[in-house]
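Example S7 (structure tokens).
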């Protein structure tokens, strides 16, 4: 879903999806974003881009549902230094940090799945070995010792 979904925000705080010709809710817009869509929200009256404002609203609604998104101490810092010291941090570093974390998490999850599949394969191999040892307990040991014919050929 690489296309940008254009929404119009009306003065009554309603959002209108221009592609679907229907009014939508903040949770719906949040769902679009979670599926990978990019959104752009334009004020219907002024034409101003209000995407950031709507994204903030979505985040605040999610935080309200879960009773907490960011630690209180961090929220105090954002309010205290928001337009000065933290602006550069948010603009330059926070997005990259989150993207790096998500990439690392995906790579770690993939490696863990790989290890689990290896563990399953090793479990199967161990089960076969144990079954073979039950029927002929010396067979696996005999494979370690060269047969007399093999020993003579090497001399």
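Recovered sequence:
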């Amino acid at each position: 879903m690489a296309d940008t979904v254009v929404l119009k925000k009306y003065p009554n705080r309603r959002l209108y999806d221009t592609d679907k010709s229907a009014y939508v809710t903040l949770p719906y817009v949040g769902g679009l974003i979670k599926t990978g869509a990019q959104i752009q929200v334009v004020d219907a009256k002024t034409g101003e881009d209000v995407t950031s404002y709507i994204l903030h609203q979505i985040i605040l609604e999610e935080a309200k549902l879960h009773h907490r998104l960011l630690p209180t101490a961090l929220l105090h810092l954002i309010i205290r230094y928001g337009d000065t010291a933290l602006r550069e941090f948010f603009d330059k570093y926070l997005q990259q940090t989150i993207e790096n974390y998500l990439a690392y998490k995906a790579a770690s999850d993939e490696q863990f799945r790989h290890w689990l599949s290896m563990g399953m394969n090793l479990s199967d191999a161990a089960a076969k070995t144990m079954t073979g040892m039950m029927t002929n307990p010396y067979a696996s040991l005999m494979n370690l010792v060269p047969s007399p014919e093999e020993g003579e050929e090497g001399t």
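Notes on this example. The chain has six helices and four strands.
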